[in-house]
Write a structure and sequence with these properties.
The complex is a heterodimer of chains A (about 160) and B (about 425).
Chain A lengths: L1 E6 L9 H11 L5 E3 L3 H6 L6 E8 L8 E4 L19 H10 L6 E8 L11 H17 L2 H13 L1
Parallel strand pairs in A: 1-2, 1-3, 3-5
Antiparallel strand pairs in A: 4-5
Chain B lengths: L7 E4 L9 E8 L2 E8 L7 H5 L7 H5 L7 H16 L5 H32 L4 H7 L1 H22 L8 E2 L2 E2 L5 H5 L2 H19 L13 E4 L10 E4 L4 E2 L4 H4 E4 L8 E4 L9 H8 L5 H9 L12 H22 L15 E9 L2 E9 L5 E7 L1 H16 L8 H13 L5 H4 L3 E8 L3
Parallel strand pairs in B: 2-14
Antiparallel strand pairs in B: 1-14, 2-3, 4-5, 6-7, 7-8, 9-10, 11-12, 12-13
Classes of the chains: A alpha/beta (about 160), B alpha+beta (about 425).
Amino acid sequence: MTRIIGCGNRHRMDDAAGVLVAERLRQLGISANVQLGSAFELVESWYRDEDVILVDAVVTGSPVGTVHVWNGQPLKVPSNPQVSSHGFGVAEAINLARILQLLPRTLSVYGIEGKQFGIGETVSPEVLASVEHVAQQIAASLTPTEAHSLQISSSRS
Amino acid sequence: MSGNAGRTIRVDTLARVEGEGAMLIKMAGERVSDVKLRIYEPPRFFEAFLRGRHFSEVPDIVARICGICPIAYQMSAVHAIERALGVHISPEARMLRRLFYCGEWIESHALHVYMLHAPDFLGYEDAITMAKDHPEVVQRALRIKKIGNHLVTLLGGREIHPISAAVGGFYKVPPKSRLHELEEDLKWALDASVETVRLTAGLEFPDFEQDYEFVALRHPSEYPFNEGRLVSNRGLDIDAAEYEDTFIEQHVKHSNALHSVIRGRGSYLVGPMARFNLNFDNLPEVARQVASDVGLKPPVKNPFRSIIVRSVELVFACAEALRICQEYEPPSEPRVEAPSRAGVGQSITEAPRGILYHRYAIDDKGLIVTAKIVPPTSQNQKRIEDDLREYAPRLAGWPLKDATWKCEQAIRNYDPCISCATHFLKLTVEQEEEK
């Protein structure tokens, strides 16, 4: 089964990207979880026999709205401490999971390049466009069986 | 380095605390001329949001104040409102609230002891670096924390910002079988927390004791969560209704969180050390025994040893949760109905970081007229500054990097939750020319 996790904070501007993707997938009838993106929560949020897709806002210096995709092993996702209250984000979660041998069967990370991370709910238009693009891409990547089973699990939750 | 030379220690982001703020220490030689814990996150206005809302909405709104200790906010709120409305909950609901609180203490204490504080003593930058050398320790921490999360989810409906706490009890209570299912996990967590005490007691601590006024709840027969009188080691013994006669909040220019002090006396300390020192006799045997085994007895006055005290409280929380799960009988009704009537109610409960005071005035339609919330980190804020004022001079001859690290550690002794008090901590130590 594929577990989809959107990371971020609705109230820190472009950091909402992962959350917005999860919400869009839910609108499409696909189950997706939302997390703040703290490493310790993330490591606890999947099982080793699962396929996991993570979506988060990232800052790499690319133009705002750029979509980065990391697949396979080893993943090298840039550290992005700004957006986690304990300073540990998705990159640290992956690193910690690798050290503790807790990585899921497969892990794909979508990173949406953000620009502004202040307090507020205004999200850059480029990020919003990428949110839709990533949600559609994830939806299309699921096999019909997976999408069906995720829809069932979504309707039950 | 000359003792008179000027120096500046600066940390732009203090790691391993919850939230955002800044710290400034000005020194002239070994003399500290100024210490400021600066919390610049904008005020969050929760007390104002609550005005005009129905009392039944309060537990869900205040749970949003903190992602780590939402249950504390819910508990202080429901007890204060129940007091205002004259509502008495069932003994079974009371036990479930204790169990709910155990879940929060387990996840919060496991997070702080292992992930945020232990790396200080073991010389690691963070828990992830620590995991490379001590994977079994970090795995243990994650498993303990997950058991706490599980308890919170079971009673609260979800892990973060739970939704089941209600004025009068709970909206939904678990069947007996669901709590019995937790027993094996809790037995493991109890053993693991005893190991945690042994681990933390073996760490090295600076020789630093302070003459604190410890303030905590005191219950005649229980280690405190939701009930008790507010007591201190200096003779304080009051009901929650008298809190504002004794404690005052002061606005200081450098912080968006109010400083809380005891009238005429000044700073005080709340949290694990205060609870342990004032309630040692009410700890369960297993917690007292392991404390005794490692030579920990009240009064503990060295804030760096709070990591051992927090570990002992982890033992308590696991033992108490196990006891409640074994003895649990569901209430006949999840909650008692609360009438809409005018009144004022105050409550203090023990959040993982210390006492949390709430007061609500409610009108005859059940709407909140005024609300007042005093979180533990706000109460410890001045005490943290006082600790740094005393501790920093001891580091005058230390290399800059090491002194800075020790100052951060002194702050982390308090497990500050800056988001609660209002969020980023920057630490700056400035060395002035001696006059």
